[in-house]
């Protein structure tokens, strides 16, 4: 394995919000999904599924749901005396939360319920944790698969941008619209396409700032 090439993929990935109109072939999507499914997961539970949307009308409908929720939040903030902050929500955060609108592909990332032989035979009988904790376990593993997906996409010349804004704002409406089963959670959405430009490298914390050694 060439470590330098691998590190370049990690360091070179960017959050891409502007895409060309070039279509992303299904074969390319299948290739990056093959990498996503090899992410680690709690007791190999593989708590992830993906809805891949290429239909423009569907993508635009989800974008509109997000904007509708943003404007509603803005109006509610104004009624509580936070008109300035409400306007900032739509003007500043809105474009980030809806940056997927012109992407050729939108991937809706789901976290499925955590199930395993450990939970069935050990964890649940001994009441290891409250039931709601298992929803969190599904999301954690789903995030690992999404990172694999984004790195694989970058390695194949595609750009991605992971967004939670639409989920924070319109998860219930999205789930109903996409007919997501109630036991599954929408974790985030990922815009996918060929980059129109290369976003600049943003500063990162130094290793010394984020690591503590116990020797």
Question: What's the helix and strand layout?
Answer:
Elements: H1 3-12, H2 26-36, E1 48-53, H3 56-79, H4 83-97, E2 105-111, H5 117-123, H6 132-155, E3 159-163, H7 165-178, E4 185-193, H8 207-210
Helix pairs in contact: 2-6, 3-4, 3-7
What does this structure look like?
- By secondary structure, the chain is of the alpha+beta class.
- It is built from eight helices and four strands.
- It has helices at 3-12, 26-36, 56-79, 83-97, 117-123, 132-155, 165-178, 207-210; strands at 48-53, 105-111, 159-163, 185-193.
- Strands 1-2-4-3 form a four-stranded antiparallel sheet.
- Helix 2 packs across helix 6 and helix 3 crosses helix 7.
- The longest helix has 24 residues, at 56-79.
- The radius of gyration is 19 Å and the shape is globular.
- The model has no long low-confidence stretch (mean pLDDT 94).
Low-confidence sequence ranges: none
Sheet-strand content, in percent, reads 5-15%
What's the helix count?
8
- Class from helix and strand fractions: alpha+beta
How many beta-strand elements?
4
Rg (C-alpha, Å): 19 Å
Mean pLDDT: 94
What global shape is seen? globular
Which series of helices and strands comes N to C?
Answer: HHEHHEHHEHEH
Helical amount among residues, as a percent range? 40-55%
What does the main sheet amount to?
4 strands, antiparallel
Q: Roughly how many Å apart are the termini? A: 30 Å
The largest sheet has its strands arranged as 1-2-4-3
């Amino acid at each position: 394995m060439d470590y330098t090439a691998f590190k370049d993929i990690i360091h070179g990935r960017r959050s891409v919000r502007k895409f060309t109109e070039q279509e992303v072939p299904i074969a390319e999507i299948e290739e990056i999904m093959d990498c996503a499914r090899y992410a680690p997961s709690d007791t190999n539970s593989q708590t992830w599924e993906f809805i891949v949307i290429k239909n423009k009308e569907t993508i635009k409908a989800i974008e509109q749901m997000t904007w509708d929720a943003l404007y509603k939040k803005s109006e509610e903030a104004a009624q509580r005396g936070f008109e300035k902050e409400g306007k900032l929500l739509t003007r500043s955060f809105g474009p980030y939360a809806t940056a997927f609108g012109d992407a050729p592909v939108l991937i809706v990332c789901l976290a499925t319920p955590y199930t395993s032989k450990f939970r069935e035979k050990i964890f649940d009988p001994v009441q290891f944790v409250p039931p709601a904790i298992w929803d969190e376990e599904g999301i954690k593993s789903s995030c690992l698969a999404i990172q694999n997906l984004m790195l694989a996409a970058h390695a194949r010349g595609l750009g991605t941008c992971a967004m939670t804004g639409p989920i924070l704002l319109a998860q219930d409406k999205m789930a109903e619209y996409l007919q997501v089963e109630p036991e599954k959670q929408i974790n985030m959405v990922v815009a996918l396409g060929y980059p129109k430009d290369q976003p600049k490298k943003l500063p990162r914390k130094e290793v010394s700032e984020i690591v503590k050694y116990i020797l």
